[in-house]
Amino acid sequence: MSENKHRVSRRQFLNYTLTGVGGFMAAGILMPMVRFALDPILKEEAAADMVAVAQVKDITTEPQRFDFKVKVKDAWYESEEPKSAWVYKDDKGEIVALSPICKHLGCTVNWNADKEHPNQFFCPCHYGRYTKDGTNVPGTPPMHPLDRYEYKVKDGKLYLGKAKPRGGA
Amino acid sequence: MKWTVHDVSMYEKEKQYIDTAVVPLLPLTFSERAKVAAADGEFMQLVTNEIERQLKGRLFLLPSFTYFASETLDECVERLNRWTSELNEAGMRHVFYVTTDQKWKETKQGLLGALFFLPSIPFEHMDDSYKQQIVQEQTTKLLNAFISQWV
C-alpha cells in the first residue's frame, strides 16, 4: 500500500506543517505589500479618463452641444468640472468633437449665433469666429483653431477624453 | 475671470479686452429671513459662476458686495457707487450688478452701473435635475441681457 511505502515520520510531519503554515503567514504579510506597491500602476490603467457624452445615433452633421462633467482632483479637493463639446459628423461621416473654449481668452463659443456670419462658431466676448471644422477665421482675435477632443465609440456611445490643441492657421 | 491669482495675472496681460465687472449684491441677515437670504445667495453664486465660465474672456466676476439687510438703501447706494467709480477708473467700462434683493428696484436710476435681477427661488426642497434646469434657464437669460448691453 502507498501509505506504507511513504511513511511520514514525526519530524517530517512537523516540518511540513511548519513550512505550510509559515508559508501562509509569509504570503499573508507579503501579499498586501506587493499589492500596495503595484497599486498605482494598476490604477492608472483602469482609469482611461474617457467620459460617456452622447449616443452616436443622436449625432448629426449639424454641430450640437453636449454637456458633461469631469472629475477633477486638486490636491485634497475633489470636484466635478462642467464641460461642453460641440459634436457633429463631417462629410466623410467621421465624428468631430470640438472644445467650446475660445482660444483667445477662454469664453464659450456658440454655433451659428451671429446672424451676419452663419455656419460658424462665434465668441460673444470679442467677436472671434471659427469655421465649422474649428479653424479660426483670420482677422478675428483668436490666433489658434479650437481644440479637438480625443474620442472613442463603444457600444453606440461616444466617449470623450482630453481636448488636444492643433496648429495655428 | 475671478478674483484669483491665476486670473488676475491673466487680466494684467490682457487688460484691453476685459472691460466688464460683475458685482453680485448679497444681503446678509440673521433674522428669521436668514435662510431665504442664504438660499438666494447660493443661487446667485451658481448663476454668476456659470456666466463667468461662459464669458470669462471679457468679464471679471468680483467677490460679492455684501451688506446687512438693516443698512439703509442710501448707505448701500453710496458705497456701491464708490465701488463703481473705482472700477471705472481701473478701466471697466461696464459694471453689472446682479441681485435677488428687491429693494434695489427703488433706486435703479441712482446707480452708476446696470442692474440685473434674478428671481428668488425656494431651492431647499428641489431635486437636483430641476435645480440644474432653473440655473441653466436663468443663466441663459442673464447672459443674453449682458450681451445686449455690450452692443
Automatic annotation (TrEMBL), chain A:
Record GO terms (molecular function): 2 iron, 2 sulfur cluster binding; metal ion binding; monooxygenase activity; oxidoreductase activity, acting on paired donors, with incorporation or reduction of molecular oxygen
Keywords for the protein's UniProt record, in alphabetical order: 2Fe-2S, Disulfide bond, Electron transport, Iron, Iron-sulfur, Membrane, Metal-binding, Oxidoreductase, Transmembrane, Transmembrane helix, Transport
Rieske domain span: 87-160
UniProt cross-references to Pfam families, sorted A to Z: Rieske (PF00355)
Transmembrane segments: 12-34
SUPFAM superfamilies: ISP domain
Tree of life domain: Bacteria
The keyword Iron is annotated on this UniProt entry: yes
Quaternary context: The main subunits of the menaquinol:cytochrome c complex are a Rieske-type iron-sulfur protein (QcrA), a cytochrome b (QcrB) and a cytochrome c (QcrC).
Function, in words: Component of the menaquinol:cytochrome c reductase complex. The Rieske protein is a high potential 2Fe-2S protein.
Family under the similarity heading: Belongs to the Rieske iron-sulfur protein family.
Protein's name according to its UniProt entry: Menaquinol:cytochrome c reductase iron-sulfur subunit
Native organism: Anoxybacteroides voinovskiense
Lineage summary: Bacteria, Bacillati, Bacillota, Bacilli, Bacillales
Automatic annotation (TrEMBL), chain B:
InterPro entries referenced in this protein's UniProt entry, alphabetically: DUF2487
Pfam families documented for this protein: DUF2487
Descriptive protein name: DUF2487 domain-containing protein
UniProt source species: Anoxybacteroides voinovskiense
